[in-house]
Amino acid sequence: MSKRREVALLIETSNAYARGVLQGVVRYIRENSRWSFYLPEQGRGDIPPGWLANWQGDGIIARIENQEIARSVAASGLPAVDVSAARMLPSLPWVETDDRDIARLAAEHLLDRGFKHFGFCGDARFNWSNWRAEHFEKAIHQAGRECQHYRSTISPVAPLENQVAEIAQWLVKLPKPVAIMACYDIRGQQVLDACRNASLAVPDEVAVIGVDDDTLLCDLSSPPLSSVIPNTQRTGYEAAALLDQMMSGRKVPPTAHLITPLGVATRQSTDVLAIEDRHIARAVRFIREHAHEQINIEAVLKVVPLSRRVFEGLFKKILGHTPHEEIIRVRMNRVKELLTETELNLATIAERTGFEHVEYLSTAFKKKAGLSPNQYRAKNRKFPHH
Would you say the pTM of this structure is higher than 0.90? Predict the structure, then answer.
């Protein structure tokens, strides 16, 4: 029998993102190989464990977030995969969230709610935060809107209440209502605390969305925090697959493997329509609740006392697209959810999302997403399908 490989996992267990990555590694091992794990108890950015210097293992998966860990991993000479955006060892392959897609999802989620004013609250210490800021601002600018960026003037290790107070000062100066993307859920929770301190109503005056969908943290926030859902388990799964190849002697180039997020978990912090026109707000709500029922414009006009011409003109002026495009968009988002979260066949998905024919769904989906439904499912499901 071949020797069981020994793999060090230098990944913290203190947050939902890292735990999801670890679950993905475990899933890969169950399906493909049997490894012995070395998982030290460590926090994000901690120095490497002392035993690593003399360890005689076979491979490493690490969140390389400081120079000490980078030096230790490099000195080991072992096959290694990086699951950090810090990119401190460019010679290694790395697996990370696709920050462009994360920012795009957050921007679409907030734009869909009719906001005209936007902000980004990040943490400049981290590459992923800076990338999310860049892509979020770009998406907002492409929609013809402006985005304000919070830039801290105090030390990141300053007391939490000082950071929250500075965020509150920034929020108070922004035009209202305003929609804020926080770089991750912890920052999102701080933004909600700042809103409470400044007596700003959430979500009516300030809507907030985070990233990571740390369900415990999001549900404990006041009010509960909406969040972009990264595909953390796929991240860990892909990292383990790459390491397996490297430990088998195959050459793996030091390129980025970016994992698409799964969607948005909507909670109370963004559960609002910032549309002043009550007829258009009512129409949007009706479309989002009934799009899967094969509704058309005539069905929408039954809930708003406007002529078709006036309604369509006003709708496009406020939301930037037609009511028909909104119906298709809502249906397509539901199709994407069902493709990634279920094993339902395409005929059943078409039936559940208001498409009369599978062929029409497939054609419309490819036009919108750039991939066929099956290609989209393969690329975005939690784990590769065997």
Answer: no
* End-to-end C-alpha distance for the chain, whole angstroms: 25
Amino acid 195 reads C
If asked whether residues 103 and 211 sit together in one domain, one would say: yes
Instruction: Give how many domains the chain has, as a whole number.
Output: 3
Tell me: do 190 and 238 sit in the same domain: no
Distance CA 229, CA 371 (A): 21
Asked if residue 249 lies in contact with residue 94, where contact means CB atoms within 8 angstroms, the answer is no
- Residue at 380 is within a domain: no
Q: At 50, is the pLDDT very low, low, confident or very high (cuts 50, 70, 90)?
A: confident
Gap between the Cα atoms of 88 and 69, Å rounded: 9
What domain range includes position 81?
Answer: 5-97+232-261
The 3-class secondary structure across the chain, one letter per residue, is CCCCEEEEEECCCCCHHHHHHHHHHHHHHHHCCCEEEECCCCCCCCCCCHHHHHCCCCEEEECCCCHHHHHHHHHHCCCEEECCCCCCCCCCCEEEECHHHHHHHHHHHHHCCCCCEEEEECCCCCHHHHHHHHHHHHHHHHCCCEEEEECCCCCCCCCHHHHHHHHHHHHHHCCCCEEEEECCHHHHHHHHHHHHHCCCCCCCCEEEEEECCCHHHHHHCCCCCEEEECCHHHHHHHHHHHHHHHHCCCCCCCCEEEECCCEEECCHHHCCCCCCCHHHHHHHHHHHHHHHHCCCHHHHHCCCCCCHHHHHHHHHHHHCCCHHHHHHHHHHHHHHHHHHHCCCCHHHHHHHCCCCCHHHHHHHHHHHHCCCHHHHHHHHCCCCCC
Dihedrals φ, ψ of 311, to 5°?
-60, -50
The per-residue pLDDT for range 73-87, each reduced to its tens digit, is 999 999 999 999 989
